[in-house]
Amino acid sequence: MKKQIIHVLVLCIGMLCNAQSDKDLKKWYSTVELETVFVNKLEYNYGLGHTGHEDDIADNGFKLKSFGVQFAYNYLVFKNLSIGVLGGFQTLADPNLFMLKLGGVLKFYFVDRDNIYIYIQGTPLISLNKDQFKKGFGGRFGMGLPIYRNDNFNITTNIFAEMNQLDLKGAKPIYENGFEEPLDLIMRSWGISFGIQF
């Protein structure tokens, strides 16, 4: 019984020491990232009358068709886990689209916030031009690695896979052949981004 009490005391003291060191840890941090996105598959779903269709409007393969910028404000919940809100925009060429993003990001650091991490983010996509699309949603999974670190900021690089789905109901047809009834556009992509964490 005495051994168990000693083990519990040692464990509690260790947790208290760790909690005290975590108090000194900066909890809030921000990131700004510039991203290039290589579209792997672009799938356009539309109806002709009551029949559904699915077209790949771009050749399969990696093509640089999209650029973006995003800013995130994060809170370090634990030493290895942070949650944040993000905003930004992303463009797409062929078809020509501009998407605003506003969503959230969850990051898991393998050591601490100055080292390698994986993340997942979800973002509702907002259109300023309803002729392009009505609304949408994007999901992303990626991994980040600091390539330069100092006391004030880190420069990071990220690789990620993402999928965006846009609701095209009532939007302008992409082919404009007079018979299309646009339904949705699904983009599957890979990307690389470079950012600053401060």
Quick gist of this model?
The chain is mainly beta and 198 residues long.
Description:
The chain has one helix spanning 2-23; strands spanning 28-48, 51-56, 63-78, 81-92, 97-109, 117-126, 135-149, 154-167, 181-197. The chain has 198 residues and is mostly beta strands. It has one domain (26-197): Porin (Beta Barrel). An eight-stranded antiparallel beta barrel has the order 1-3-4-5-6-7-8-9. The longest helix is centred in the N-terminal third of the chain and has 22 residues, at 2-23. The protein is elongated, with a radius of gyration of 22 Å.
Order of helices and strands: HEEEEEEEEE
Strand content is over 45%
Strand order of the largest sheet: 1-3-4-5-6-7-8-9
DSSP helix count? 1
CATH class type: Mainly Beta
Provide the residue-averaged pLDDT.
Answer: 84
CA radius of gyration = 22 Å
The number of distinct β-strands equals 9
Q: How many distinct folded domains?
A: 1
CATH architectural group: Beta Barrel
Query: Would you identify the regions where 5 or more consecutive residues have pLDDT less than 50?
Result: 4-24
User: Looking at CATH, which topology would you report?
Assistant: Porin
Q: Structural class of the helix and strand makeup?
A: mainly beta
Q: Report, as a whole number of angstroms, the end-to-end distance.
A: 49 Å
The backbone outline, from C-alpha atoms, is elongated
Q: Give the fraction of residues assigned to helices.
A: 10-25%
Main sheet overview: 8 strands, antiparallel, barrel
